[in-house]
Amino acid sequence: MKNHLYLSLAIISFLFLSCSKESKIKNKIKEYVEKNFNDPSSYELVELKLFDTINEQKVSKYLTDQRLGKLTRIKQYVQEKREEQSKIASNALFSGNHYYLITAMAKLEKQNAILNKFEKDSVKIIQNEINQLKKYINSKNISHYRYIHEYRAKNDVGALVKCIDTLRIDNELKIITDFQYYIIRKFGVHL
Question: pTM of this prediction?
Answer without folding.
Answer: 0.76
